[in-house]
Structure formats: structure tokens, C-alpha cells
Amino acid sequence: MNSFVFSMVVVFLVFFLLSSQVSADLISDTCKKTPSYNLCVSTLRADPQSSKADVQGLALIAVKKLVVEGTKTEKEIKQLIKKTKYKPLLDALKLCADKYNIIVHYDFPVAVEAITKGDPKFAEGATVDAARSSDKCASGITSTPNLASSNKLVHDLDDIVLYIVRLLL
């Protein structure tokens, strides 16, 4: 009886270790297909659900992080608008606010829903649109390094989501 229990424990441990290794390999393999490997790996591994996720699950984890960062950036833009007096920068910030309103309240929800429902083509369209919008924002905010950095993070996360979604096509 003791040898049977021991054997079952060993089998369970081997299975657990192999499944963890497979998940880790899936994250690494998936992230190798994105333009920002290190950001992709750190983003996905930060979520405990990633160890059990398939590629669709990894896309959902990445897009949820994208939503968080996009929402933070939108708030940052709104705060800067209230403080800014310099007209060229104010105009650039207002353009960014318009773009982030679309990104956060339209593109990201479409991407989340499309990934959830297994429709990667719609998710791809939404992430491409969000990337274009963040690019348009980037040109006018170089004088605000924190916002420029936040916008770049959103753009890089968006690229990661886009590349993962394309694996689902």
C-alpha cells in the first residue's frame, strides 16, 4: 500500500512539473513571436493564470494588462490637460485625449470581447486601430517624458496583443 501511495505521489509530481514546464514553454514560445519578448514574458508571468493558459488565454491576459495601462494613460492625459497652459502642448494633449477615448472605450472592449468569443479577426482590427491611435498621440507629446513613456508602454503592449492574436488566426 505504501509503495502504491508513493508511486501515485511521484506520478502526480512528475505530471505537475511537466505541465508547469509546458506552460512556461508556451509563454516563452508565444513571446518569441512578439516584438517585445521581455515585456511579453514579464506581463504574462505576472498573472498566476498564465501557467494554465492556452494561447487564447495568454491573449486575454495581455489585453487585460493593456486595458489597465491604457486607462492609466488616459487619466494621465486628462490630468495634464488641466495643468497645461502652453497651447501647442494643450492641442497635442487634446488630440491624445480623443485618441485614448476611442482606444480605451471602444478598441480595448472590442478586443477583449473578440478574444473571449474566439474571434481573433475582430481583435486584430481593434488592436491595429489602437496602435495607430497611440502613434498619432506620440508625435505631439515628446516634451512630456512620463506621458511619452506611458504611451509607448501602451503601444508596446498593444503590439504584443496583436502578435498573440495573430497566432489565433
TrEMBL record:
Stretch forming the signal peptide: 1-24
Keyword Transcription: no
Keywords (A to Z) from UniProt: Disulfide bond, Signal
Organism listed in the record: Acer yangbiense
Protein name: Pectinesterase inhibitor domain-containing protein
SMART domains: PMEI
Domain Pectinesterase inhibitor, residue spans: 22-164
PANTHER family noted in UniProt: PECTINESTERASE INHIBITOR-LIKE, PUTATIVE-RELATED
Domain of life of the organism encoding this protein: Eukaryota
Protein family: Belongs to the PMEI family.
InterPro entries with a match to the protein in the record: C/VIF1 (IPR034087), Invertase/methylesterase_inhib (IPR035513), PCW_Enzyme_Inhibitor (IPR052421), Pectinesterase_inhib_dom (IPR006501)
Pfam families, A to Z: PMEI
Molecular functions per Gene Ontology: enzyme inhibitor activity
